[in-house]
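sorry for the late reply, my laptop died twice this morning and i had to redo everyting from scratch. anyway the thing you sent over, i finally got around to it. pasting the sequence first so we're on the same page, its 73 residues, then the predicted structure underneath. double check i copied it right bc i was rushing
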Amino acid sequence: MKDLKINLGIGKTEIAKTGKGAVVGGVGAFTYSLLSGMDVMPAAFTAPDVVPYVVAGLAAVINFVRQFFTDHR
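ok and here's the structure:
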C-alpha cells in the first residue's frame, strides 16, 4: 500500500491572505455601521435579512479599491 500524504498548504502566504480578507470584511462592516449611523444608508438596505449581503457588497468594493491602488502604485 502506498503512503498517503496530505498537504494542507497552510503557510505564511495563506495566513497573510486570510488576514487581509478579515481586515477587508471588518472594514466593510465598519463602513456599513458608519453609513447606517449617519442615516445615509437607504432603508431597504437596513432590513435584517439583507444586511449580510450589503456588508459583503461593501467589503467587495473596498477590496476592489484596495487592489486597484496596490496594482497602480
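The chain has one domain: 18-71.
thats about all i looked at so far, will dig more tmrw
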